[in-house]
C-alpha cells in the first residue's frame, strides 16, 4: 500500500464587533504517521516537513493565535490517533517548533477523519474555518473523502479545505484531493520536493491571513452655486457611496467631513429648499482632500398663459411672467425633446408684437419659458394643436407647360404656396397663395402624372394634394433646308407660344438649352433667325422655355460664305486708305486692320461695311506688318484677310529754342501728315503728355501758350491717333526778358 502523509493547517475566523482586537485562530495539523519516514532525494519527509514548518512559523504574524495538532504519532494502526499538543495562542511559534521536532512518525493516515476532526475543533458550524491539507497519497481510513468534504461544506458556516499533493502521482489519489478542494471551495496544489512544498504552503497560508486594517483618510465635502461660485450656506443632504460597499447618509448641513478608505466613490448633494441635486465622483488616496459638488444656481420663477388649443401653423398670443432677461424666449416644441429643443420660438420682448407660431403638424406640444442662462426651462404648459382644413380645386388633366387656374381653401399663412411636382415631394413650379384665389400655376414641361399641393412655408409641410395628369403638347416648323453662314432666314412655326418660348438653331447633338442663336416666339410667325457663323449641319428647334424642352426640330445645312478685299499693300502709319470689298454685308460686319496673329475680334481700327464699298480705313499709329480683314460680326469670323505694311511717318518743327517766360506764347512752324486731330504741344523734358497744345488743323505756323515757369521743355508733334510723337525739338524758357 502507498504511504500517505498529510499536513493540515486549520484556521478559524472568530467574528467580533471590536475589529482592532480580533485575531485569527490557526491550528497547524501535522501528519505523524509512519509514511513520513519515506524519502525525497534522500531526505525523510518528516525532516522536510520540520524544515518547511520552521520556515512558515518564521513568517507567521506573532500576534495571531497559533496551535499544533498531530496525528499518527503515538500508535500503529489506530485511525483515531489525533492530539492537540499546543492550543492556539499568540507567540506560540517556538513551542510549536519544539513539538514538531520531537515527533517520531509511526501510525496510520486517516486523511478524511483528520479534516473532520479539525473542522469540529474549529467549530466550523458556528464560525468560518479553513483547513490546509498536505497529503502524499490516497485515503486509508475513510472510504469516501468527496462525500465527507461535501457534508462539511453543507453544514459549515464558511468551511474551506485547501489541499497540497506532496509527491503524489497516482491518478486516483490526485482525483480525491481535487474533489476535496472543489467541494469546499478551496485550492488544490501539487509539490514534488521541499522547495515546491514550501511554495505551496506559503500560497495557501497567504490566503488565510487576515486583511490589514484599512488606512482612513479625511475627506471634506462642500457645495457651490455654479462652477466656481460661492459656497452653499443652506442645509444640504449628503449621500456617499462606493469604495468597499460604503453607504453613508449624512445629516443635512452646509458642509460635511468623514474618513474613508482608499477607493472610488460618488457623493450626491441635495438642496431640498430649491430642489436641486448634483453628484461628483472622487478617488480617495492617502492624501486628505476637499470634494466640491457644483449645484445649479436657483432659477427665477416664470409662468405661461395661453389658449389650450390652436390650429396647426397658427400664430397665437402668449402671456408670461418671468425675468425677461436679454434673449429669454418662449418656445413651442415636443413634450419629450429628442435632440431638438424647439420647433418655433419668439423672444419674450417680442411676444406681444410677434406672437408664437404653432407647429405645422397636429399633436400635443409644450409651451416653454426658456432662460438664456444655460437654456434653462423656467415654466411650461401643454397646448393641443389641431389639424388644418385645406382643399384644392384643380383640373384632373392639363397640357405640358400650360398655365392652369387653381382654386384653394386654406390658412394663407405668410409664404404659403401652391406647387406642382412629382409624387416624391419636390416641386417644379409654384405660386404663392397671396397672389389670389383662384391663382394660376404653370404645369411641368414634361408629360406625366403629378401632384398639385398646398404647402405651408413652415417646414415645407404639405397639407393638401390633388392628382393631375400632364399630357403632350405639339409644335411644328417651316424653314429652308439650306442657308448661308450668318444669314438671317425666315422660320414659320406653330406651338403653344408659352411665355419666353423660342426658336433656336443649334448643333444636332446638344441639349435643348444649348444653341447658336435664337428668337423668341412672341416676335410672331414667321420670325427671323440668324444662322451660325460656321458652315455645317444644324437643327432649327421649337423650345419650351420651361425646362428647355424641344417640341419640334428640323435639320438645316449651313454653307460657307465668302468675301474679298482690294486695298494697298503699303501705307503710312495713321493714313486713311481706300478699301474695296465684296461679302455678305451682314448687320455689324466690318473691315478691320489688326496685328498679324490676333484673333478675329481683335483690331487696331475698323469701319462697318454698311458705310459702303469702297470705304475708308485708318492705318495703325505704329509702323509694322498688319492685316486688313473682312470680319463677320457674329463670332468675329475672318472671311478674308490681306497683308499691309505700315511705314514710319516723321514730322519736323521750327521755332525759337530759348524764349523768356514773359513772352507768353511761341510761334511754331511744322511739317507733318496733318491727320485729323494731330496737334503741336509743349511738354516737360523727358516726361509724357503735354502742358499746352494747338491742333495742326488751326494753321501753319501755330501759336502755343508757354509754360508759367522757367525751365527745360520740348516742343512735340503729336499724332491724334494714340498720341504718338512724330518729331520734337528742345525749348528753354528763361525768367529774363
TrEMBL record:
Keyword Calcium: no
Record keywords: Signal
SUPFAM superfamilies: vWA-like
Signal peptide (UniProt feature, chain positions): 1-20
SMART domains registered for this protein in UniProt: VWA
Keyword Signal: yes
Domain of life: Bacteria
Protein name: Ca-activated chloride channel family protein
UniProt source species: Yoonia ponticola
